[in-house]
Design a protein that fits this description.
alpha/beta; 5-stranded mixed beta sheet; 5 helices
Length: about 140
């Protein structure tokens, strides 16, 4: 079994989470400047045996796509050209940022630490991945 990688795409930075090799545990990996995302993924996917990539699908409350979807589509085109054998699954990411922020509060992080947007992006990617793993195990 290979790892599953989750991407919480943003125009400035992108949160990344990954499973263990048995696909049991989701963990935050890092946050990468979006401009450096493809080079980062090239190195990571080559060394870690990723078999599936999840990409968040940001939607408004009414179900319509958010503004960043256009940029995600550009990224997905480059991704599919670069990683021809790695499948991509889109997952609804509504409310993950709010859930990530609440997780930071529940974890006892101080206000200054909760202002770290990179950490919010990484936690959001982890939540995407955890939700996906839960749907697999139902």
């Amino acid at each position: 079994m290979g790892r599953i990688l989750a991407i919480d795409f943003g125009t400035k930075r992108t949160g990344i989470a990954v499973t263990d090799a048995l696909q049991l545990i989701a963990s935050g990996l890092t946050t990468v400047a979006t401009a450096e995302l493809i080079p980062f993924l090239e190195k990571y996917i080559a060394s870690e045996g990723v078999e599936l990539v999840l990409v968040g699908e940001p939607k408004q409350k009414d179900g319509s796509h958010s503004e960043v979807e256009k940029e995600i589509q550009k990224f997905l085109k480059v991704f599919s050209e670069t990683f021809k054998t790695v499948p991509v699954v889109r997952v609804d990411e509504r409310f993950t940022s709010k859930m990530a922020f609440q997780t930071m509060i529940d974890s006892g992080l101080k206000k200054k630490q909760r202002q770290n947007k990179a950490l919010i992006d990484e936690i959001s990617a982890t939540i995407l991945l955890q939700d996906y793993l839960l749907t697999l195990n139902r």
